[in-house]
Amino acid sequence: MAxxxxxxxxxxRLHPTVMAMIVAREFQDGYVVNLGVGLPLECAxxxxxxxEILLHSELGLLGFGPVISDYTRADPYVTMVGNLPVxxxxxxxxxxxDESFAMIRGKHLDVAVLGGLQVDVDGNLANTQxxxxxxxNLGGAPDLAYGAKRTIVMMRHTTNEGAPKIVGRCTLPLTxxxxxxxxxxxxxxxxxxxxxxxxxxxxxxxxxxxxxxxTGVSLVVAPDVREVSLV
Length: 231
Hints:
- This protein is an alpha/beta fold.
- The protein has one domain (about 1-225): Glutaconate Coenzyme A-transferase.
- About 15% of the residues lie in helices and about 25% in strands.
- It contains five helices and 15 strands.
- The protein has helices spanning about 1-10, 15-25, 95-105, 140-145, 210-215; strands spanning about 30-35, 55, 60-65, 80, 85, 95, 110-115, 120, 125, 150-155, 165, 180-185, 190-195, 195-200, 220-225.
- A ten-stranded mixed β-sheet has the order 6-3-2-1-7-10-12-13-14-15. Strands 9-8-11 form a three-stranded mixed β-sheet, with no helix packed on it.
- Strand 14 (about 195-200), helix 5 (about 210-215) and strand 15 (about 220-225) form a beta-alpha-beta unit.
- The longest helix has 9 residues, at about 15-25.
- It is globular.
């Protein structure tokens, strides 16, 4: 009963669309950006207006547009990861699978936005294998996590059972080591620097103390910490 009372008092968490808008602040004009499966795909529909962002898919697309919700307009040959149909924009490029991964491994991606199961204080990422699952589904995640110039993790702050996903040390199999620089969750924005997790922004209604209670590592609160802003 006590846990239910605490849950009832918890402030509202950020909607995935708002989380995507926060992540998309990082996308500068001309950036090449890859979006991982799950929550990161929300960023395709939250790109900053007035900027040319080249979305990249390891399936072999570069420069596509938003996700298409009307499947009668979908082209089965123009899909991103997760087999989601996307808008074909002028100048969009098709490429082979090996060329797509050559872009990743050649560090031609400015930002990779990936989901996460755990992120720890050293920026290690686990996002492919759930606890108790006999094998993970790596896909292109290790290449993206380590190959992009900047890796941002977009995830919910806790599991469905309430366990923290930002931890002192990942206990799940690692996708890639020391690759995460920023984490955006449904309660705040965090930077991973020098073995510390720094709270930069908090969701409306939340406080540093409230976020600390659902985080698996001691947070460093930035001197200029602020409420989440979309600009």
